[in-house]
Amino acid sequence: MGCCGDVDDEAPPSPLVSPPSDLLEPLNSLRRQASLSSGPDFTISPINSNFSALLCKDTLRSILEKLALADLARAACVCRLWRSLASDREMQIRAFMSPWKLRDVIGNPSSGSFWRDNSLSKFAFPHRVCRGDSIASLAVKYSVSGEVTC
Amino acid sequence: MAPKNKNPNGENVVPEVQQKKTQALILKSSDGEEFSISKSAAGLSVAIKNMMEDDCAGGVIPLPLVDGGTLARVITYLNKHAEDGASDEDKRKFDEEFLSGMEVDVLCDVALAGNYLDIRGLFHDVCQRIVNGMKNKSVEWVRKTFRIESDFTAEEEEQIKKEYAWAWEGVDSDAD
């Protein structure tokens, strides 16, 4: 970005708007409203907003990185730009592994439905199932953390 | 004023820390609005801090990628986080209320500004909020909400729908 505003410096300082009250007032009243109820019809958005953040690869990547696996897979179906970022293998693998603290995922899934969830059924353990073993006890045994639903 | 705050000529000197806090900068939005902000609050933005350190700010910092409405929100955030005596709990509560009222397009604008101005905490929180909103939503919902037109060819679209059929079924109702 240009950092030296030489042109602007030449101009006489115009009266300062010290955060304009007409802009902050809606925010303040919004905060008051928000604590009471989040009215869906109340909007402070500028009309000309065009979601430019989602066109900025950097920002979009930061958002997609935080998505859970299934949401990330959906994001990959939205449009070309989203697909190019969300189908990035590294990102998918990270989303897949994050609840399980896995070290790596080997091979490529044969179908997109692989990314639908990352439940325990997706894993093959070299484990002899003994009487009394449950999914939860296996998870504990293999130090798998995250939500375990039986 | 205590004697230690006088310089050799006997004039009062504002302690450096205080001076830093009270000095103001001017941030200029893309649509020409000017906002006064203390240097301590502005310094929470790594990008602005770097400009101040390089001393090329010249008192007025133009921010050609941030519109006035968004900048006002960012400044509200920075002021709160630079506030003396605001505990972490206060700030957390403020952040929650600050973000909870924002529509998704405003969140996107603030995310972009947070990234551009390098305000990590704000950027992270806003992204997380957008992500929370996308949880369990169908592809159609995401397209509609973010006003994204699918630019896949008809064949590609069909292929994706076949491969990811489940992705079109929003777990949550698409109504909201």
Automatic annotation (TrEMBL), chain A:
<dbReference type="InterPro" id="IPR001810">
    <property type="entry name" value="F-box_dom"/>
</dbReference>
<feature type="domain" description="F-box">
    <location>
        <begin position="55"/>
        <end position="95"/>
    </location>
</feature>
<dbReference type="InterPro" id="IPR045030">
    <property type="entry name" value="LYSM1-4"/>
</dbReference>
<dbReference type="Pfam" id="PF12937">
    <property type="entry name" value="F-box-like"/>
</dbReference>
<dbReference type="InterPro" id="IPR036047">
    <property type="entry name" value="F-box-like_dom_sf"/>
</dbReference>
<feature type="region of interest" description="Disordered">
    <location>
        <begin position="1"/>
        <end position="22"/>
    </location>
</feature>
<protein>
    <submittedName>
        <fullName>F-box protein</fullName>
    </submittedName>
</protein>
<feature type="compositionally biased region" description="Acidic residues">
    <location>
        <begin position="1"/>
        <end position="11"/>
    </location>
</feature>
Automatic annotation (TrEMBL), chain B:
<keyword id="KW-0833">Ubl conjugation pathway</keyword>
<dbReference type="InterPro" id="IPR036296">
    <property type="entry name" value="SKP1-like_dim_sf"/>
</dbReference>
<protein>
    <recommendedName>
        <fullName>SKP1-like protein</fullName>
    </recommendedName>
</protein>
<dbReference type="Pfam" id="PF01466">
    <property type="entry name" value="Skp1"/>
</dbReference>
<dbReference type="GO" id="GO:0009867">
    <property type="term" value="P:jasmonic acid mediated signaling pathway"/>
</dbReference>
<dbReference type="InterPro" id="IPR016897">
    <property type="entry name" value="SKP1"/>
</dbReference>
<comment type="function">
    <text>Involved in ubiquitination and subsequent proteasomal degradation of target proteins. Together with CUL1, RBX1 and a F-box protein, it forms a SCF E3 ubiquitin ligase complex. The functional specificity of this complex depends on the type of F-box protein. In the SCF complex, it serves as an adapter that links the F-box protein to CUL1.</text>
</comment>
<dbReference type="InterPro" id="IPR011333">
    <property type="entry name" value="SKP1/BTB/POZ_sf"/>
</dbReference>
<comment type="similarity">
    <text>Belongs to the SKP1 family.</text>
</comment>
<feature type="domain" description="SKP1 component POZ">
    <location>
        <begin position="25"/>
        <end position="82"/>
    </location>
</feature>
<dbReference type="InterPro" id="IPR016072">
    <property type="entry name" value="Skp1_comp_dimer"/>
</dbReference>
<dbReference type="GO" id="GO:0016567">
    <property type="term" value="P:protein ubiquitination"/>
</dbReference>
<dbReference type="InterPro" id="IPR016073">
    <property type="entry name" value="Skp1_comp_POZ"/>
</dbReference>
<dbReference type="InterPro" id="IPR001232">
    <property type="entry name" value="SKP1-like"/>
</dbReference>
<dbReference type="Pfam" id="PF03931">
    <property type="entry name" value="Skp1_POZ"/>
</dbReference>
<comment type="subunit">
    <text>Part of a SCF (SKP1-cullin-F-box) protein ligase complex.</text>
</comment>
<comment type="pathway">
    <text>Protein modification; protein ubiquitination.</text>
</comment>
<dbReference type="GO" id="GO:0006511">
    <property type="term" value="P:ubiquitin-dependent protein catabolic process"/>
</dbReference>
<feature type="domain" description="SKP1 component dimerisation">
    <location>
        <begin position="121"/>
        <end position="167"/>
    </location>
</feature>
